[in-house]
Amino acid sequence: MNNYKYNPIQEVEDDGLTIPEVGEWGKEKYNLLGYYAELFTKSMRDKWGNLVYIDLFASSGYCKIKSTGKIIKSGALIALSTPIHFDKYIFCEEDKDLIASLEKRIERDFPKERAKSVFIQGSCNEKIDEIIKNIPRYSVNNTVLNFCFIDPFNLGIHFNTVARLGAYQLDMLMLIATGMAATRNEKKYQSPSNDTISLFLNDSSWRSDFSGDADMKNQSFTQFLSKRYKSNMIKLGYTQVADFHDVRYKHNNKNVLLYHLAFFSKNPLGNKFWNIIRKQYTGDQQALF
Ligand SMILES: C[S@@+](CC[C@H](N)C(=O)[O-])C[C@H]1O[C@@H](n2cnc3c(N)ncnc32)[C@H](O)[C@@H]1O
Fold first, then answer.
1. pLDDT attached to residue 284
2. Cβ atoms of residues 116 and 148 within 8 Å
3. With a threshold of 0.85, does the pTM exceed it?
4. Of 61, 102, 169, 221, which one has the greatest count of Cβ atoms within 10 A?
5. What is the biggest distance separating any 2 CA atoms in the chain, rounded to whole angstroms?
6. What's the CA dihedral at 14, 18, 21, 24 to 10 degrees?
7. Domains assigned to the chain
8. Which stretches of 174-242 are DSSP H helices?
9. Ligand 1 neighbour 57 (Cβ under 6 A)
10. Is the CB of 59 under 6 A from ligand 1?
């Protein structure tokens, strides 16, 4: 499939702790996350004092693929399983049971990394101060490079939260729930009492921009959100925003868009790595299914 020996998709046994179900297409996200994390840790290990993994929607570390019943490691444990480890892991998850299961799995399977892990239960939008407090302090003698994974079910990540992290040396892999949420809920979001998109873009006047943007004529809500998100990130200093990666699934012979995976780095090397991973991975994407 590609040149890597490391494989992010690792099957595991049911251990009696909580295991959420996911669709088959989750594997594409996990592969891209794992391969990026592996390349990041391998290439940056000797260049930085501290490599930090931050997961804002961490879940429990295991998931069950609905169609096959197979249980695999999910995002948080994929990040812990790279051959070269991060120096610190910061996990945030709203659900008490999921984060407790993640903590137990890390205690059991990664005891050394447990000592380097922080578990924050609650909404990442509310806990952002605590998340940031746990990022090691940067100095000339103690440099810090962060990799943040943002993997919500919907558009519930506030741009203010992302902007707080944007103040750090930080690469970001983010799921933008375009098909899963934006397309399905466009009408609901248009209602003036709904603040989902205002918080997602940190812009309460987005409705008039969407209807009035000349470039946006004949373009979809999803395209509007993608364009606005890119321009928001450019303003944060993520000047080289890569094209978003589409994740689709086959339904009634159509390739339906589920979500975009967006990658943001302030360093051209980050984008170079992301493009390498994407090209190698998507070269044989069908093999997954
Ligand atoms: C798509 S799942 C994440 C999957 C996870 N990255 C993985 O690989 O297994 C989204 C998770 O975010 C949690 N969640 C929802 N809203 C949240 C919020 N505002 N802050 C933190 N976690 C949240 C949900 O409980 C759920 O476990």
1. 46
2. no
3. yes
4. 61
5. 57
6. -50
7. 21-187+239-282 (3.40.50.150)
8. 184-190, 196-201, 206-212, 221-235
9. yes
10. yes
